[in-house]
Amino acid sequence: HDVYNDLATSFTILLAIFFPSVTGIMAGSNRSGDLKNAQGSIPKGTIAANLTTTVVYLVTAILCGAAATRQVLCDKYGESINGGLIMSLIAYPHPYVVVFGCLLSTVGAALQCLIGAPRLLYAIACDDVIPILKFFSVTLENGEPFRALVATFCIATIGCLIGNVDLVAPIITMFFLVCYSCVNLACTLQSLLQAPNWRPRFTLYHWVTSLLGLIMCLTLMFISNWYYAIIALAIAGGIYKYIDFKGAEKEWEMVSEGYNFKLPGTLS
To answer: Tens of pLDDT along 148-173?
Structure first.
């Protein structure tokens, strides 16, 4: 059979599609309230999970390269193997191993999001950082954030109804990268400003790693899709200004206030 390559596919498109599969790095942080020793468990669990998934992905790529030719692997639509999937053909002991694996992986990722995302939304609503989200600060008698869970379910359903993974994946990638960029930016500025309430206890932490993470996230955003990146950054900037003007009435310190406090001392 002839092999048909998709000429529209490029490294940047594949990067945007693949990136959501490695976005579980914040899963431990999202469940920090349920951990007995969050300071010790989150760094160890995050590093162990990253190393495990990296090894699995690299081994999978090597095994695919050893089991099939490059031309077959580049055949996006599987025309050379009668419309099948190369992973199912080389799977042992039966092709349906891949089908059930994909199903279990998808369900597991969905459950992880439905557990972590509602609690994160509920925590933001309880802190009153974004007043418009105050509606989601209510829980059931058992402590379950039901309203936040329903909102998360509706957002996930919209993504499923689009029915095109290639279209949804770049959008998810952008907002994950914006989230990671903001985390790295906050860590960098808090370290440089020497904020009294910023005391990271992880021995291998340094503000340079956070700065490199920020640069890498922004670079990946514009490599993947530059106009999606601009839209995502504009939305993030709009949320920041909304918090700045109509944000929490509680005594939440902002990085800009620390900068204004630190700058005169530095200049003097």
So the answer is: 999 988 988 887 888 777 777 778 88
CB 85 within 8 A of CB 76: no
Calpha distance 163→157 (Å, rounded): 10
DSSP string, 17-30: HHGGGG-GGGHHHH
User: What average pLDDT score do residues 31-44 get?
Assistant: 75
Distances from the Cα of 187 to the Cα of 206, 207, 236, angstroms: 9, 7, 17
By the 10 Å C-beta count (0-12 exposed, 13-18 middle, 19+ buried), 153 is classed as middle
Strand-pair partners of 5: 75
Q: Cα dihedral sign for 45, 47, 50, 55?
A: negative
DSSP 252: -
Whole-angstrom distance, CA of residue 157 vs CA of residue 107: 14
Which has the minimum average pLDDT: 70-74, 114-118, 141-145, 235-239? 70-74
In this predicted structure, what is the pLDDT of residue 234? 92
Alpha-carbon dihedral 48, 50, 56, 59, rounded to 10 degrees: -110
Secondary structure in 3-state letters for 47-78: HHHHHHHHHHHHHHHHHHHHHCCHHHHCECCC
The amino acid at residue 111 is L
Six-digit token pair at 96? 């349906």
Instruction: Please name every residue paired with 75 in a beta bridge, in sequence order, or none if there are none.
Output: 5
How far is the CA of 116 from the CAs of 74, 131, 140, in angstroms?
A: 36, 21, 17
Coil, strand or helix: which one is 130? coil
* 3-state SS track over 164-193: CHHHHHHHHHHHHHHHHHHHHHHHHHHHHH
